[in-house]
Amino acid sequence: MAKSGALDLATGIGGKIQKTEVESAVDQYEKYHSDFGGDEEARKTNYSDMVNKYYDLATSFYEFGWGESFHFAPRWKGESLRESIKRHEHFLALQLCLRRGMKVLDVGCGIGGPLREIARFSSVSITGLNNNEYQITRGTELNRLVGLDGSCSFVKADFMRMPFPDNNFDAIYAIEATCHAPDALGCYKEIFRVLKPGQCFAAYEWCMTEHYNPKNESHKKVKAEIEIGDGLPDIRSTNQCLDALKQAGFEVIWEKDLAIDSPLPWYLPLDTRHFSLSSFRLTTLGRLITRTMVKTLEFVGLAPQGSVRVSSFLEKAAEGLLEGGRKEIFTPMYFFLVRKPVLDS
Ligand SMILES: C[S@@+](CC[C@H](N)C(=O)[O-])C[C@H]1O[C@@H](n2cnc3c(N)ncnc32)[C@H](O)[C@@H]1O
To answer: Domain 98-216+235-257+330-339 has what CATH class?
Structure first.
């Protein structure tokens, strides 16, 4: 079970960072971003420190609001948020034709919500790769609780330098994770290297769409809000990702922004006009209650100093995501299925 109580939220803030260091970690994290004088180059050079600080600070909020899977999904009418998230995970498994006996890699696996769902859905063994130690500790515990510790495991490493031999996996997927890479080509090349020839990689990427105009100030503001609120060095366009995949050597089987056909908008859970009991903590009222609760817990010393500031930059992320979704300049579900060609001998 995901940690979803108020006390779990409070005590988890900061992850592996010492509780007395949380406030200064927030300072350091914020300084990477443009609102606080930071620039893209510094974010790219120090991506590992920036992203790890972000997930140490934010993971317990994610678990509290989203559960075990930290991603969006297209939404059908009559479907709950949880159902849509599961279906989005199954879609990847089906696109990759996962089946018993395959050795699969989940790149940037969070606390392993999708990994556990896909491992059970497709009867495969999955290795979750993640650079954040706190999330791996949580994921290992959750795997053990559902009896998947024998077939699934985690490896702590950077997806820009994976500790795996060449041609090692039968399938690879990434869900809303490779957007943290300082350079898409470098990351896709690593994935290409460890995938067996003839096998496939599928992902959901966070991207700016063709409607994004880098000269439009309100568009730039949305992009910056998403970057600071979600620990991203620089959000790439769908075309930049597609070019990087081809340059890395992949054959593109198909690609599509799944947000375009989603019957209900993917950002519905964050929409100020939307109310839902099943995803209450993500609604405007739910977020306001969480913020007040975190303030109280920080005041009485149960949550570390700096917790309210974490909750504030996550609020900023929600606002940026919502605006980006409404303006159709941003998507968290640019899907692609690509294959590593079999070389002629
Ligand atoms: C938004 S979360 C998505 C997690 C998971 N895929 C899910 O859907 O629940 C992004 C994940 O990417 C991981 N990540 C970011 N940069 C990484 C890197 N350089 N190497 C490995 N993992 C990374 C983060 O630690 C986090 O677990």
So the answer is: alpha beta
